[in-house]
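Sequence, please.
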């Protein structure tokens, strides 16, 4: 642990696939780390969604390699979202499209429409 924490914080993310693989192979400590990570992420989502009053029909969008790559943390978080909110989470693949949607929403004072979202995220 001391060696890992001597490195820059961003490099700790390189350990995530190793922990996930160990958890999937039945390592008890890795399983506890995975469960705690998913619980923290879901708690943060609960605080934001419930505290701010998640609008009806609002999407929950996952981003980052831990949540966009198949693995135990992503699986637990996706299951938690389905159980808590009865929706399938979306995936953020393009940060520029997300930034544009946030800018449009800030400018107009309302969330972007489905049509605008589709245009921002289309690949063609």
């Amino acid at each position: 642990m001391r060696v890992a924490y001597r490195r820059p914080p961003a490099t700790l993310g390189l350990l995530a696939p190793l922990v996930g693989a160990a958890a999937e192979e039945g390592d008890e400590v890795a399983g506890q780390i995975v469960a705690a990570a998913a619980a923290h992420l879901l708690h943060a989502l609960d605080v934001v969604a419930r505290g701010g009053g998640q609008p009806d029909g609002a999407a929950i969008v996952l981003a980052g390699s831990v949540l966009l790559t198949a693995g135990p943390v992503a699986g637990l978080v996706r299951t938690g979202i389905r159980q808590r909110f009865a929706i399938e989470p979306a995936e953020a693949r393009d940060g520029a499209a997300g930034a544009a949607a946030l800018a449009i929403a800030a400018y107009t004072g309302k969330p972007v429409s489905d049509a605008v979202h589709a245009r921002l995220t289309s690949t063609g």
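The longest strand covers residues 61-62.
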